[in-house]
Design brief:
- The complex is a heterodimer of chains A (about 200) and B (about 60).
- With about 200 residues, chain A is an all-alpha fold.
- The longest helix of chain A has 22 residues.
- Chain B is mainly α and about 60 residues long.
- Helices cover about 50% and strands about 0% of the residues of chain B.
- Chain B contains three helices and no strands.
- In chain B, about 20% of the residues are buried.
- Classes of the chains: A mainly alpha (about 200), B mainly alpha (about 60).
């Protein structure tokens, strides 16, 4: 985070589309602002799909290298929005990975400790920390137990901040189907939370 | 039983009146779960960011 937190104010107030134009015209520094703006959304989305920190890092990096190569080659379609475009690239890389691995992006348990180590904890008792970590682990597992199509929509909507129209285009379904999947995802999450007795309100 | 689903943006709560929120269980559910979902946000490592920046600046 420290690497890119000091982007100039003029860039912070520039639209994604204009930043892209600036990069294409040779202003290389603007990639920092695009990263600062979207890295969390894109990385979290990838991570929740692949459920592996190192793999998510690789896919995130590959996605941005494809982005940079496309911008440099002049093949970027300016009609599209930047974030949905990057998410489409990342999504395709995730699909490619699972195809190559000949497995589906589902379930299994185990991980959970690495993310927790990255979170800074302030003035929190050991008991509170353990409870919070357990809640995060439970929630990640619940998301991973959702049917793939519901998990995909939930991640793209909440973490990647894509519109239902953009999600529908990316996943080749109608907007109503995407909306329905989101509704079922939330409903299923709530059911799992009730079973697990995970509080959905802030403590 | 088929239930009608109102295609309201689940994130667009600010435009909904209280009455509309009460009548939109999907929106209410999303708002209830949202804080927990937000806790799962995470960042790529600085090493990954550094590699991307290095690549971006190499013409």
């Amino acid at each position: 985070m420290g690497l890119i937190k000091h982007t100039p104010m003029r860039l912070q107030q520039t639209s994604d589309q204009d930043l892209v134009k600036l990069y294409i015209s040779g202003d290389e520094a603007v990639i920092e602002e695009l990263l600062r703006r979207h890295k969390s959304k894109i990385f979290t989305s990838i991570y929740l799909l692949v459920k592996d920190q190192y793999l998510a890092e690789d896919i995130f990096q590959d996605a941005f290298i494809k982005v940079i190569n496309t911008l440099r080659s002049g093949r970027y379609n300016e009609e599209g929005k930047f974030l949905p475009w990057v998410m489409r690239i990342a999504h395709n890389l995730v699909i490619d990975y699972f195809r190559k691995e000949k497995r589906t992006p589902t379930i299994t348990s185990s991980d959970g400790t690495d993310v927790l180590n990255l979170i800074q904890i302030h003035e929190e008792s050991a008991e509170e920390r353990i409870l919070r970590e357990q809640t995060h682990t439970d929630l990640r597992k619940m998301i991973h137990h959702l049917p793939d199509e519901q998990k995909e929509v939930l991640i793209m909507r909440h973490y990647a901040d894509l519109s239902f129209k953009e999600i529908a285009e990316l996943t080749d379904v109608s907007i109503n189907t995407a909306l329905g999947r989101m509704r079922y995802a939330l409903s299923n999450l709530r059911k799992m939370m009730n079973i697990k007795e995970v509080s959905i309100s802030r403590s | 039983m088929t239930k009608t689903f109102t295609p309201t943006s689940l994130k667009d709560l600010s435009t909904l009146s209280t009455l509309e929120q009460e009548n939109n269980p999907d929106q209410k559910l999303y708002e209830a779960i949202k804080p927990k979902l937000d806790e799962l946000y995470r960042e790529p490592s600085e090493e990954t960011i550094a590699k991307i920046l290095k690549y971006a600046k190499k013409r």
